[in-house]
User: Fold this.
Amino acid sequence: MNVEKELDVRGLSCPLPVLRTKQALNSLDGGKVLKVTATDPAAVKDIQALARHTGNELLESAESGGEYTFLLRRQ
Assistant:
């Protein structure tokens, strides 16, 4: 999968990870993929909700060693 843009929000707390994710998604053209890396556990639910409410597609969500990775496709 081609990742158009990567966003590192590690070390940031709610609501900054989801706000920066929304800004990054808005900067992409439709169909492009954004990879987000976060350390805030709240980002899991926040980014899922963001995808649902904006119509963007959450392609993948994973956790490893306290880091959360998300792949989102801009609609």
Observations:
- The radius of gyration is 11 Å.
- The chain is about 30% helix and 35% strand.
- The domain at 5-73 is CATH 3.30.110.40 (Translation Initiation Factor IF3).
